Amino acid sequence: MMMPFIQVNQMSCSIKGKVILTDINLKLEQSQCVALVGPNGSGKTTLGKALAGILPFQKGSIYLQNESIKEKSLSSIGTVIGYLFQNPEKQIFASTVAEELSFALKYKGFPADEIEKSVDDMLRRFELNHLKNASTYFLSQGEKQRLAIAALLMNHPQYLILDEPTTGLDSKRKEQLGHLLDSLKDKVGMLLISHDKSFIRRHAYQTLKMEGGQILHD
């Protein structure tokens, strides 16, 4: 029987000697948007980072496409899983919006005209056209959030882990993001870490609740 896209077995994680996650068991399919909710400090972000290979874990296992992520490099995991940090400033590093969007494709050696076309398409989808050559330093919080998500999608991930993706977005931008995520559901799986209950109700297939480093129920 084929394993889920991501499978977690009895995984526990400690940071600086403090136990954050205990005996996590989880199955995530590529064709579903699953929400992860719970109070601050419950372990949601830690779990998301562990799934993306950003944080090491001490016990149990995590399988990505039937392979242990401990056997994979962070860069190889990054070609499959796109991870959005709570603070988009942590992952925006280029000096302009266009440079940020084009980085992944340039790194992969795509032709310049194809990169330009893809960048312009993403600028249009996220209504960032007017900021194409703008400095990323001077973007608003909402603009940085949209840019960070757009840059993830430029890499064509098969799975997205989005940590508080609606932060800094007004109701119009939230609705636009929701439409975009809905359009991706058939080909991109998603774990949506959020406190935004109305956004979750509208876009998540399933909701998992965390508390005290454990998944309580769905």
Map the helices and strands.
Layout: E1 6-15, E2 18-28, E3 33-37, H1 44-51, E4 59-64, E5 67-68, H2 74-78, E6 81-84, H3 97-107, H4 112-125, H5 141-154, E7 159-163, H6 171-184, E8 189-193, H7 197-203, E9 206-211, E10 214-217
Parallel strand pairs: 3-8, 3-9, 6-7, 7-8
Antiparallel strand pairs: 1-2, 1-4, 4-5, 9-10
Helix pairs in contact: 3-4, 3-5, 4-5
The gross shape turns out to be globular
Catalogue the unreliable spans. none
Distance between the first and last residues' Cα: 24 Å
Strand order of the largest sheet: 6-7-8-3-9-10
Structure, explained:
With 218 residues, this protein is of the alpha/beta class. Helices cover 33% and strands 27% of the residues. It is built from seven helices and ten strands. The protein has helices spanning 44-51, 74-78, 97-107, 112-125, 141-154, 171-184, 197-203, and strands at 6-15, 18-28, 33-37, 59-64, 67-68, 81-84, 159-163, 189-193, 206-211, 214-217. A six-stranded mixed beta sheet has the order 6-7-8-3-9-10, sandwiched between helices. The chain has a four-stranded antiparallel beta sheet with strand order 2-1-4-5, with helices on one face. Helix 3 (97-107) packs parallel to helix 5 (141-154) and helix 4 (112-125) crosses helix 5. The longest helix is centred in the middle third of the chain and has 14 residues, at 112-125. It is globular.
